[in-house]
Write a structure and sequence with these properties.
The complex is a heterodimer.
Chain A (H helix, E strand, L loop, with lengths): L4 E3 L2 E4 L5 E6 L6 E7 L6 E7 L2 E4 L8 E4 L6 E5 L8 E8 L8 E2 L3 E5 L1
Parallel strand pairs in A: 2-11
Antiparallel strand pairs in A: 1-3, 3-8, 4-5, 4-9, 5-6, 7-8, 9-10, 9-11
Chain B lengths: L2 E3 L4 E5 L4 E3 L2 E3 L4 E8 L6 E5 L10 E2 L10 E3 L8 E9 L8 E2 L3 E6 L1
Classes of the chains: A mainly beta, B mainly beta.
Chain lengths: 114, 111
């Protein structure tokens, strides 16, 4: 079966532009996580959904970051007024467990803000 | 605060030599520890978790609570083991088991 997919795979944005990153989790997976991975670093937690409910957004670095999963499947991470420090790989992971145990990762979206 | 430290950014060994990738953690409570691997141009994938006490691709890792370490070991490295390795932890229970990752170790196995 298909794994977690993300689109676009690469995104170049001018500073100040808004971007939207999409995640298609594995079908039936209830938990969905977003992580941000800066160059040379490990992934860092951004936010967590259980079905359509965003239960934890403590990792979002600023109010310019917004995530949604309105129907409990596809999720979108939106970044408004992008800054250079937003340049990173954004990873999505899904799990069939409510707790998020056993996460499967997507290939990531590499965002470059110029 | 929880933290995972991988002191080596780069590690090179020769094929057939033993390899150990170090991981130390700090966490208030009992975490679950994982090793994730990312091969070139592939996505991040789970290698092993301490609860399973399993050996995957010849790799093992033992949780040492006294030293708060979870080092990854393999007695005879192979060229196909070359990859980026991340140590990670999550709460052992709870409603949201997000992962906290170390900064990774790039392993290169030389022929």
């Amino acid at each position: 079966g298909a794994g977690v997919s993300q689109s676009p795979r690469y995104k170049v944005a001018k500073r100040g532009q808004d971007v939207a990153l999409r995640c298609d989790p594995i079908s039936g997976h209830v938990s969905l996580f977003w992580y941000q991975q800066a160059l040379g670093q490990g992934p860092e937690f951004l936010t967590y959904f259980q079905n359509e409910a965003q239960l934890d957004k403590s990792g979002l670095p600023s109010d310019r970051f917004f995530a949604e999963r309105p129907e409990g499947s596809v999720s979108t991470l939106k970044i408004q007024r992008t800054q250079q420090e937003d340049s990173a790989v954004y990873l999505c992971a899904s799990s069939q467990r409510v707790s998020g145990y056993e996460q499967y990762f997507g290939p990531g979206t590499r965002l470059t803000v110029t | 605060a929880q933290r995972v430290t991988q002191p080596e950014k780069l590690l090179s060994v020769f094929k057939g030599a033993p390899v150990e990738l170090k991981c130390n953690y700090s966490y208030s409570g009992s975490p679950e520890l994982f090793w994730y691997v990312q091969y070139s141009r592939q996505r991040l994938q789970l290698l092993l978790r301490h609860i399973s006490r399993e050996s995957i691709k010849g790799f093992t890792a033992d949780l040492n609570k006294g030293e708060t370490s979870f080092h990854l070991k393999k007695p005879f490295a192979q060229e196909e083991d070359s990859a980026m390795y991340y140590c990670a932890l999550s709460p052992l229970s709870g409603s949201a088991r997000q992962l906290t990752f170390g900064s990774g170790t790039q392993l290169t196995v030389l022929p």
